[in-house]
Amino acid sequence: MKFVRLFGRVKSAVIGMIHVRALPGTPLSTAPLSEITEEACREVEIYQSAGLDGLIIENMHDIPYTFEVGPEICASMTAICAEVRRLCPSMPLGVQVLSAANESALAIALASGLDFIRAEGYVFSHVADEGLLNACAGNLLRYRKKIGADHIQIFTDIKKKHSSHSITADVSIVETAKAAEFFLSDGLIVTGTATGAKADPAELREVAQAVSIPVLIGSGVTQDNVQHYLDANAMIIGSHFKRGGYWANALDPERVKRFMEKVDELRK
């Protein structure tokens, strides 16, 4: 399994989020790219010292998000990701570019030597807070083939957070998972309803039983509830590692350390 070769374990890998500061050209941008990159690298060092299994870099502060991501975002994210890769040449690394800039994420990952991307809107349409998002699997995989990036895995959100799924209300999360697997997803991401909101452990079990590809948890894992998600192939964690458990705050080294100490104990 490609996932196991990458992360070195079958289940309960911990992937930390690096929410880079607002990038040039976005409404909240105040810092130069050099400063943004330095902060991301400081977070890398915290995560490395705590023993995480992987990292994902995301432009979370670029609110409000848009489907029309400009070249300045791609250039900035490539520069940041390349520096993160330089700091940790062997750690599994991924990237997500909001909102739903999945082809841009693939190009960034290829240019900076990353291993995977997180993709939104892979199968079925839904209404996100940025607008209507249509399925992208066919175009995305063709783009991956065209640029020679088949080695970069694509982990795909299903029934994505921050979205209305009323137009597919007759399609269950299990059916969505099966469709994504059929459309050659490398792994599925199950989330709660919003950033930091916990996923339903029952949905994790249902999806994992229905497919043969990895299933990741993409939101809401904390030190208090992590035992309910250990059967996931991986847990993507951002908000819980921040001061006060809020995604926009600075990374809290003690929260990261305590979480990994508990996970290491539970994984024995």
Helix-strand string = HEHEHEHEEEHEEHEHEEH
Structural class: alpha/beta
Residue share in helix: 25-40%
Strand order of the largest sheet: 1-2-3-4-7-9-10-11
Number of strands: 11
Share of residues in strands: 15-25%
Can you offer a commentary on this structure?
With 268 residues, the protein is α/β, with parallel strands linked by helices. The protein is 36% helix and 16% strand. It contains eight helices and eleven strands. The strands form two sheets. It has an eight-stranded parallel beta barrel with strand order 1-2-3-4-7-9-10-11, surrounded by five helices. Helix 2 runs parallel beside helix 8, helix 3 packs parallel to helix 4 and helix 6 packs parallel to helix 7. The radius of gyration is 17 Å and the shape is globular. It starts with a helix and ends with a helix. The model has no long low-confidence stretch (mean pLDDT 95).
